[in-house]
Design brief:
One of its GO terms (molecular function) is DNA-binding transcription factor activity. Keywords: DNA-binding, Transcription, Transcription regulation. This is Transcriptional regulator, AraC family. InterPro entries: Homeodomain-like_sf, HTH-like, HTH_AraC. This protein is an alpha+beta fold and about 260 residues long. The chain has 2 domains: about 140 residues, Regulatory protein AraC (Jelly Rolls, Sandwich), CATH 2.60.120.280; about 110 residues, Homeodomain-like (Arc Repressor Mutant, subunit A). It is about 45% helix and about 20% strand. It has 11 helices and 9 strands. The strands form 2 sheets. Strands 1-8-3-6-9 form a 5-stranded antiparallel beta sheet. The radius of gyration is 24 Å and the shape is elongated. The two termini are about 45 Å apart.
């Protein structure tokens, strides 16, 4: 069971803001701090960038302050039973930089919308949203606590990857993708592969073949037209790449998988 007691989004304080609760709370506190801050953990001061998440355990000291700028955070006071949180105990009382902070902040806002609503199933909805938040935070923790250099463009990389799959017909090139992210071609290739474990141009090919499979299954379009819709100017090149990735020609793939007439 998971239960929110109080919560708020985008709460702001001036640059002199500080908290010093030596005994913490009798419940847990989640903070997504959207400004630079300093946390005192086990007597050690840790300076953190904007978009840092911390989940304080019950009765754990809360010591944190603004760091040279207006302080802003999302916050949740909550209770839980032992079965709900056991998998995530390693995340407690540890500042964690969140590269996909828009995603996490959106989850918190969705929880607030439910918490302050009269929806019939708001408790279940909030619990599922919190589970998603914890899974994403654990995923981030396993990528290491602070990865500020790479994480600065993490959201943009995700947007780029989504755009590649949404628009496989585009005339994608490394130079075009690097320009979109305002980084060098070399850095794009390095950071993309380190993030998604595939090169950016291999991703383009994957997106085109994925779309080709869909068109072959769902339509009666000629292979040449499908080739064009998937961003290929040369049908022979398309057929070679398709067979390389699937071991089948487009015609063979259609014959084995087509839904038409079934």
């Amino acid at each position: 069971m998971f239960k929110i007691l109080r919560m708020g989004c985008n709460t702001t304080h001036d640059n002199n803001f500080s908290v010093n609760r030596l005994n913490g709370y009798q419940w847990c506190l989640l903070l997504l701090v959207k400004s630079p801050a300093v946390f005192i953990i086990n007597g050690k001061a840790i300076s953190t960038p904007a978009n840092t998440l911390i989940i304080y355990d019950r009765n754990y000291p809360h010591q944190y302050r603004a760091n040279g700028a207006e302080y802003k955070n999302d916050w949740i006071h909550f209770e839980f039973d032992s079965g709900f949180f056991n998998e995530y105990l390693t995340m407690l009382n540890t500042p964690l930089y969140i590269s996909n902070h828009y995603y996490i902040s959106d989850l918190i806002q969705k929880m607030a919308n439910e918490f302050y609503s009269n929806n019939s199933y708001k408790e279940q909805t909030i619990e599922y949203l919190m589970q998603i938040l914890l899974i994403k935070a654990k995923e981030q923790m396993e990528m290491k606590t602070f990865q500020t250099k790479q994480s600065r463009i993490h959201d943009e990389l995700i947007k780029l990857r989504s755009e590649i799959y949404s628009n496989p017909r585009n005339n994608w090139s490394i130079a075009l993708m690097a320009e979109k992210l305002h980084i060098s071609c070399g850095y794009l290739q390095s950071v993309y592969k380190n993030t998604f474990f595939i090169s950016c141009m291999s991703e383009v090919i994957e997106s085109r073949i994925t779309y080709a499979k869909e068109l072959l299954i769902e339509s009666e379009l000629p292979v040449g037209e499908i080739s064009n819709l998937c961003g290929y100017q040369n049908e022979v090149h398309f057929m070679r790449q398709f067979k390389k990735l699937t071991t089948l020609t487009p015609t063979e793939y259609r014959r084995l998988n087509s839904k038409l007439g079934k």
